[in-house]
Design the sequence.
């Protein structure tokens, strides 16, 4: 899964006006999502991070129903979410380490 900072730049809803439509009118939002080039990434992100509202062309309730009807998908997403959290934690530790190394080099 690409990072949200990468694919969200390609999303149709990235501008404030479209974002407002999506937040206020789910039916219209779903139609907007149909023509979005990153609808799959958006849906995957919303499933992993349990977003509310319309994401990836589906409402929160539709996504919950989809997961309830597909336990294998739910298990896969749970595993992916755990792996992403582990990666984020390790990345954060690495960032802290390299920041400390740079600080030590500058003070030396």
Sequence:
């Amino acid at each position: 899964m690409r990072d949200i900072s990468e694919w969200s730049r390609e999303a149709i809803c990235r501008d404030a006006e479209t974002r407002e439509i999506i937040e206020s009118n789910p039916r219209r939002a779903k139609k907007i999502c149909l023509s979005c080039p990153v609808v799959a990434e958006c849906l995957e992100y919303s499933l992993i991070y349990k977003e509310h509202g319309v994401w990836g062309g589906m409402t929160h309730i539709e996504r919950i129903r989809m997961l309830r009807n597909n336990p294998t998908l739910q298990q896969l997403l749970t595993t992916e979410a755990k792996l992403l959290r582990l990666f984020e934690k390790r990345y954060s530790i690495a960032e802290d380490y390299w920041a400390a190394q740079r600080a030590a080099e500058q003070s030396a």
